[in-house]
Structures are given as C-alpha cells and as structure tokens.
Amino acid sequence: MANARALDKRRKSIRNIRKITRTMELIATARFKKAMDRATAATAYTQRISQVVADLAQAGLQVSHPLLEARDEPERGMLLVLTANRGLCGGYNGGVIRASIPRLKELREAIPQVNLEVSGKRGIAGLKFRGIKADRTFTQFDDQPGFDEVEAIANRYLDAYITGELDRLDVCYTRFISIAKQEAVIETLLPLGTLGDSPKEESRGESTYEFLPSAESILEEVVPTSFKIKLFKCFLDAAVSEQIARMVAMKSATENAGEMIKQLSMTYNRARQSQITGEIMEIIGGVEALNN
Amino acid sequence: MAEFQCVIVTPEATAIDCMAEFIAVPLYDGEKGIGAHHSPMIGRLGFGELRIRSRGKETRHYVDGGFVQVADNVVSVLTNRAVPAGKVDIDSARSQLQDAIKLPSNTEDLQQVRERQIQQARGQIHVARRANE
Predict the structure, then answer these.
(1) Beta strands B14-20 and B82-84: pairing type?
(2) pTM of the model
C-alpha cells in the first residue's frame, strides 16, 4: 500500500488543478455568452442585407457581378485558416488543422500558386510543426473579433481579387451549428457563388422601390458587403466555437479531477486505516510480549 | 409631428433603434433628407454625416458607406460603421488621406480603390470638423 502522506499530497495537487479547470470553465462560459451575443447581433445585419438582395431580385435585376463568377483557370489561390490563440480547448484547434491540410494539398495540386494565411498562435505552431509555412499570420483575434480588423483583411482580399492577384479564396474554420455541435469546415468565399444565406427571404415593399442611383449600382455595393459579412461571420463562428470547445474541455477536466480525487481519497483512507491497524497490532504485540 | 422608426445596423450590433422625425443620410452623390411616410427606396450611401432629429434633438453620426432602405415607414441604414460625430478620429483620417493620395492609379481598378480610400478619409475629416465647430 502506498504511503498515506504521498497520497494526500497528490490529492491536494489534483484539488488545485480542479480549482483551476473549474475557473477556466467559468471564464469560458462567460466569454461564450459574450461571443454568442455578438454573433446574434450580427444576424440583424445579415438579415437586412439578404432582404435588400431579395428586393433587388424582385425588381427584375439579373444578379451578376465579377465577384460571383468563378474564373476559368485560377492561378492564384489562398487558404485562410482560423484557429485559436490559446490551447486547452479540446479538439478545436486540431480539428481545424486536420481539415485544412488535405485541402491545402488539393489546392496546391490544382492551382499553381497557393498562399496560406493563418490566424491564431495554435494554428501557426501546429502547421509549422507539420512543416507547413504560413505566408501571413494574425494573432490579434480573440474572443471578440472586431469588424474593423476583419474588414481590413476582407478589403485586402477584395482588392487582390478585383485586380486579378487572387482567383480563389477558401476559409477553414469551425462552424457553429448549435451549442452541442460545431464542426471544422472549409468554405469557398471567393468567388462568392450566391448572395446571402437565404435568398427566399420575403420582400416587404413589393417592387415599387426607387433605387438611387440604380439597382445595378446598389448590387455593385451589396456584393462586396456580403463577402465582408460572410468573412466576419466566419470569425464570429470560430470565436463562439472556441469558447464552447474550451467550456466542454474544462468541464470534463473538472469532472475527471473530481473522480480522481474520489479514487485517491479511497486509497488514502485505506492506506491510513492499514497504517493504524499496523500500529495497533504492534502495540498489542508488545503488550503480549510483556505479559509473557 | 409624424414619426417613423429609424434603425441603424452595423455588422457588430444595432447601433440605433429609435423613433425620429427627420433623418438626413449621406447618399453616394449628396445628402438626402427623409421624413415620415417616405416612398419605398433603396439608396447607396457614401461616406459622410448622418443626422437624426428626434423630438427636437439632433444627433450626428459618421457612416461608412452601405445602404439605406425605406419601406413601411421604417428607415433602415446598413453601414459598416456608425461612429458618433464627436468620436471620429481626425488624425487617423488625415494620415489615411495622405496614404491614399500616394496609392498608384495606373489602372482603372487601382484608381477605384484609391478613390474610395480618399472619399472615406475626406468624409471622416468633414464630419469631425463639423462636430468640433
């Protein structure tokens, strides 16, 4: 039987770990709520944009824009990988990295020049470990990505796409489906393909809209905006998913620590008991020896 | 006085949701005033000052492009940023203007990019100046 004091020491250290993981869980919960609120606030904008698109479509406008059309022979591609700056969040970072590597390989085979951009220290380190070098890295995005920061990146992509320096953009991130489910996905954001998430949005004002200056000009503005919004949504989703992943990981770590403490307590009690029994036996043995 | 609902939405949040009597929006080519019961309209916004008059009080914001949609007596402004006029950073706008002027403009696309940057910076400077008056 192990030494009772050593067991007690171990139990104490696990208690400390449990305290830490419990705190991290609570922090992640609070951050998740904040990130979730932001993501919900962003949907108001998305909805209104898709409504404008629906109104434009109802006005009989053919939706066509250079950003929507795929290029015949893409020469320059880009893969953006969104990971977290911090670890201890279960399979979150690993999932994104594992999803991005095959796609990067696939892209490099199909397109002559593919650049890789990575956001998050974990992703940078994880890909570096696998021998993949990122062309550009970002570490400024935490649990609350700001639109300004995302817009700066989006504008750079848009400018590159318009001037022909970029033909395709893929984003690898963790999509938030529900609180219980998030998955690492890869989406092609440029060319955009379709506009808005729900093109069947009901139009409000019938087709009596007056367009200033013209429906075409508004479409010209809507398309880049919806690209920016899509990219922003990727960042928001990634932030929310990260917090959920951390919450879940820390919750199970806390539970696991609790279980270990239980086990150790049992072993410790047994060890203590046997120690006491041993001591009593020694005393009784001594008494017996004296009596004889 | 007749009122209408005025909603200003940015990608990060709904900046303003209030009842207003009058709102002036910076369209791509100049300002447009909108009162209650305006006919349905979708307009493209430029970079400039948005004024809302609500119960005799006027508030000013800088809006950064986007759209305005008017329907059913609701004015929705969709913009990238809506900054209260007093909080516009005039120094960073000035430096953006300096940088933008230096951008190349040898092709049509590059020219557009440059033009946009310049307009954005000038819009901010204009709003900030008016707020400081």
Answers:
(1) unpaired
(2) 0.86
